[in-house]
Amino acid sequence: MSSIEQKQQAIEAAMRLAPVIPVVVIHDLQAAVPMARALVAGGTPAIEVTLRTPVALDAIRAIAAEVEGATVGAGTVLGVADLHAAQAAGARFAVSPGSSPRLLDAADDSVLPLLPGVATASEAMALLERGYRHLKFFPAVPAGGAKLLAAWASPLPQLRFCPTGGIGLSSAPEFLALSNVLCVGGSWLTPADKLAAGDWAGIERLAREAAVLR
Ligand code: 3PG
C-alpha cells in the first residue's frame, strides 16, 4: 500500500507532464496504440482513457504495454470495481467525476493514485481532510469556470486542480493562467471523427497545439 502522500506526488507528476490531459472515449481497440503514440509525439503524454466503452480496459492495457512515453490513466472511475480493474489493466492513475466514501476507502487501500472530481468548496474540504491536494474540477465550465477556481485560490491555497468539462483550445489559457491550476482536461484532442478515420497526424497536430498552451 502506498501512502496518500506518495500517491499525491505521483498524481502531481502526471498533472505536470503537459498543460492538457487528453480525455479519450475509445470505441475501437485498434485505435488505442496509434492514437496514444500520436498524443505522445504531440507532447501530451498523460492520457485519460474513460471507462465508458467495452474496450476501454483493453485500450489501457495496450497503451501501457506498447506506447513508450505514455502515462495512461483510467477516467470515469465510478466505483471500487472500476478502480481495481484500472489498476489490473496497468493504469498509472485514476480519475473520477466525483467521489464516494466507498471509492475513497478503496483508493486508500490501492497503489493507484486517484484524482477525484469536485464542484464545491465543501467537497474539496472533505477531500483535503483525507489528504487530497490534487483534484479534478468538474464540470469546469458549467460549475463556474475559471472565476470559481480563482475564488478558491485564497481560502483553499493547498489545492491544485485539473479543471475538465467544457474546456477547449481557446478557453484553456484562462484556466492555465490560474495559480491553482496545473493542467486542464479535455476531449478536444481526440475527436470522434478523427479517431474513426484513423487520422493520427491530425490528432498529433491537436496535441502539439495543446502542448504549448503554457
Ligand atoms: C468528459 O466528461 O468527457 C470530460 O469531462 C471531458 O469533457 P469535454 O468533452 O467537455 O472536454
Assign the CATH topology. Answer: TIM Barrel
**Mean pLDDT over all positions:** 98
* Sequence of secondary-structure elements: HEHEHEHEHEHEHHEHEHH
Bound molecules: 3-phosphoglyceric acid
SSE-based structural type: alpha/beta
Beta-strand content bin: 15-25%
The low-confidence parts are none
Q: Provide the helix percentage.
A: 40-55%
- Give the CA-based shape: globular
CATH superfamily: Aldolase class I
- Spatial extent as radius of gyration: 16 Å
Would you count the extended β strands for me?
A: 8
Q: Which architecture per CATH?
A: Alpha-Beta Barrel
Largest β-sheet summary: 8 strands, parallel
Number of domains: 1
CATH top level is: Alpha Beta
What is the tally of helical segments? 11
Reading side by side through the largest sheet, how are the strands ordered?
A: 7-6-5-4-3-2-1-8
Distance between the termini: 35 Å
Keywords:
214 residues; eight-stranded parallel beta sheet; 8 strands; 16% strand; binds 3-phosphoglyceric acid
How does this model look, in words?
- With 214 residues, this protein is an alpha/beta fold.
- It has one domain (3-211): Aldolase class I (TIM Barrel).
- Helix content is 47%, strand content 16%.
- It has eleven helices and eight strands.
- Helix 2 (29-42) runs parallel beside helix 11 (200-211).
- The termini are far apart.
- Bound molecules: 3-phosphoglyceric acid.
- 3-phosphoglyceric acid is lined by residues 23, 138, 164-167, 185-187.
- The site of 3-phosphoglyceric acid has 9 residues, from strand 8.
